Amino acid sequence: LELPTADGPLMRTYTLSSSPSRPFSIAVTVKAQAGSIGTRWMFDNLKPGAHVKAYGPVGDFSLHSHPAAKYLFISAGSGVTPMMSMLRWLNDCAPWT
Ligand SMILES: Cc1cc2nc3c(=O)[nH]c(=O)nc-3n(C[C@H](O)[C@H](O)[C@H](O)COP(=O)(O)OP(=O)(O)OC[C@H]3O[C@@H](n4cnc5c(N)ncnc54)[C@H](O)[C@@H]3O)c2cc1C
Fold first, then answer.
1. 20 to 30 A Cα–Cα from 69, which one of 17, 39, 63, 94?
2. Closest ligand 1 atom, CA of 33?
3. How far apart are CA 12 and CA 69, in angstroms?
4. Which atom in ligand 1 lies closest to the alpha carbon of residue 12?
5. Domain boundaries defined on the chain
6. Which residues does a 6 A CB cutoff place in the pocket of ligand 1?
7. Cα–ligand 1 centroid distance for 5 (angstroms)
8. pLDDT digits over 53-78, tens only?
């Protein structure tokens, strides 16, 4: 995302935590650490109806790249975000049960 802060645009990368099975909106799940500039700007400034520029998506950490009968997800911190997307997709589509 390109965040238009008062000091100029800041680029920050976030995982899409939403699922392609719910295609009419996309979501990111963010956590601001102490001292955060970019992510903190989102909490302080984004309101319903606001617009920010987005680039991508990029990356290939996807269930489609790792088909399996069962999954074990282990994550920490913001590492949970891709798994939120995967779990939502599994919940909606349950393709391997
Ligand atoms: C592939 C990928 C996916 C990601 N997905 C997510 C996601 O889904 N959700 C999420 O929340 N984040 C995600 N991130 C992390 C995100 O992109 C940001 O890096 C993160 O939010 C920190 O940015 P910030 O603007 O909050 O902090 P920044 O302002 O960039 O600061 C980062 C840290 O550095 C410290 N710092 C800043 N300036 C200085 C300085 N001059 N000296 C010493 N320390 C300093 C700050 O205290 C802060 O803790 C992802 C990153 C990658 C690469």
1. 17
2. 49
3. 34
4. 17
5. 2-93
6. 12-15, 28-40, 78, 81
7. 15
8. 999 999 989 888 888 888 999 999 88
